[in-house]
Design goal:
- This protein has 383 residues and is mainly alpha-helical.
- The chain has 3 domains: 65 residues, no CATH class; 151 residues, no CATH class; 138 residues, no CATH class.
- It is 58% helix and 4% strand.
- The chain contains 20 helices and 5 strands.
- The strands form 2 sheets. A 3-stranded antiparallel sheet has the order 3-5-4. A two-stranded antiparallel ribbon has the order 1-2.
- Helix 3 packs antiparallel against helix 4, helix 9 runs antiparallel to helix 10 and helix 17 crosses helix 18.
- The chain is flat.
């Protein structure tokens, strides 16, 4: 499940055909049902996804169907400078999720990465830029501008003299770059679209840059982002760290006497999942135990496992926008939880599937972590 993806025979055939007969490749891609097209793109190695996506005759249908993390990975794989044609078809929720996952370092907005996404949205056209800017929190836009410029506001008198290196679109707000020589070309391009097509948004944004407090703005930006990431299954760091909680030696053997099945609740997955774990294919005891359950029982365990892997991603400080982060976290979650599962099954003399029904997956991970002397809890990285 966490192995490096390889090209499927179908994807390999399509890419080969695209090299010799692009039109036939597009026709063949378009003949596939939408969910097959999504699976074909998302199951391929990241380096091949952009080309596969380019074969879709209706990208306006395929792009919105991609899970947000997969869209982020595709856009980054080909370079954001070349991703405009993809983002042109992205939904506001997808754009917001991409920026939430990729334009932050630790708990802080990353101005360089955020600026790269704004440029990519701008390259996709004014409509896409407006859609993207409206999808992003005002607070993050304000923080981004604050890192680039100061604002001089022309007062209603004749003595106002703007700074010689300032830039203005309206003769009222003058943007002064913090870094000498910064021509602000990318920023002014974005603001020009706002000024021309959504003046009141433009006005509120520049007023906020001038008057809003940095600390309060950052607090609200973090709060909004945290809520959206929770909707995608990524909890706050403090909650995620619970999986690394210490257990006294006598606690490591505890097994609830009754079944505690995982909740049936599901959420929009940020990544594409091809299928449930297969007992016959996995090296991990956890997946073999899940695979031994009746098929109707497996799905809640899949979501419970993904929730565990997401906590590992957050606790370990892995970059959410990196295509390798979730596979790395799922491998670690499966390995450590399998250790806890094996320990409890042997200690109590019961089948691993029985342990699985009685102990939550997070409990299995904690037991496995506390038993493995080679592991240490992660430390917080605030960016």
């Amino acid at each position: 499940m966490a192995s490096v993806p390889t090209l499927s025979p179908e994807a390999r055939s399509l890419l080969g055909l695209a090299d010799t007969d692009p039109q036939s490749a597009r026709k063949q891609m378009g003949a596939l049902p939408l969910d097959r097209q999504v699976g074909l793109v998302c199951s391929a190695p990241v380096a091949h996804r952009t080309k596969l996506l380019s074969l879709a005759p209706e990208p306006e249908r395929l792009v919105p169907a991609l899970p947000p993390a997969e869209l982020c990975h595709v856009a980054r794989a080909g370079g954001l400078a070349e991703a405009g044609w993809i983002l042109e078809h992205a939904t506001p929720d997808q754009i917001a999720a991409c920026i939430d996952m990729d334009a932050w370092t630790g708990l802080d907005p990353d101005p360089a990465r955020f600026g790269g996404w704004l440029v990519a949205l701008s390259d996709a056209g004014e409509d896409t830029l407006l859609r993207g800017v409206h999808a992003v929190d005002m607070e993050q836009l304000v923080l981004h501008l604050k890192t680039r410029v100061g604002i001089e506001l022309k007062e209603s008198n004749d003595t106002f003299e703007p700074s010689p290196d300032s830039h203005t679109l309206d003769g009222q707000f003058y943007l002064v770059p913090h870094v000498p020589g910064d021509d602000l070309e990318d920023l002014m391009s974005t603001l020009r679209v706002l000024f021309q097509r959504d003046y009141w948004f433009y006005f509120r944004l520049l007023q906020a840059v001038n008057w809003e407090l940095d600390t309060e703005t950052a607090e609200w930006a973090t709060r909004w982002r945290t809520g959206r990431l929770q909707d995608l299954g990524f909890p706050p760091w403090e909650e995620a760290m619970a999986v690394y909680g210490y257990l006294r030696p006598e606690q490591r053997n505890d097994l609830p006497p009754h079944e505690t099945l995982p909740p049936a609740g599901e959420w929009p997955l940020p990544v594409w999942m091809p299928r449930l774990p297969d007992a016959s294919e996995s090296e991990h005891l956890l997946f073999r135990a899940i695979g031994s359950l009746p098929e109707a029982e497996r799905r809640p365990y899949l979501f419970a496992f993904l929730a565990l892997a997401n906590k590992v991603v957050v606790a370990d400080g892995l970059p959410l926008g990196d295509a390798g982060s979730l596979p790395k976290a799922t491998e670690k979650a499966a390995q450590v939880a399998s250790g806890g599962l094996a320990h409890l099954a042997e200690h109590h003399g019961v089948d691993p599937a029985e342990v699985l029904r009685r102990a939550p997956l997070e409990r299995l991970f904690r037991v496995g972590f506390n038993l493995d002397d080679t592991l240490s809890p992660p430390t917080r990285v605030d960016g």
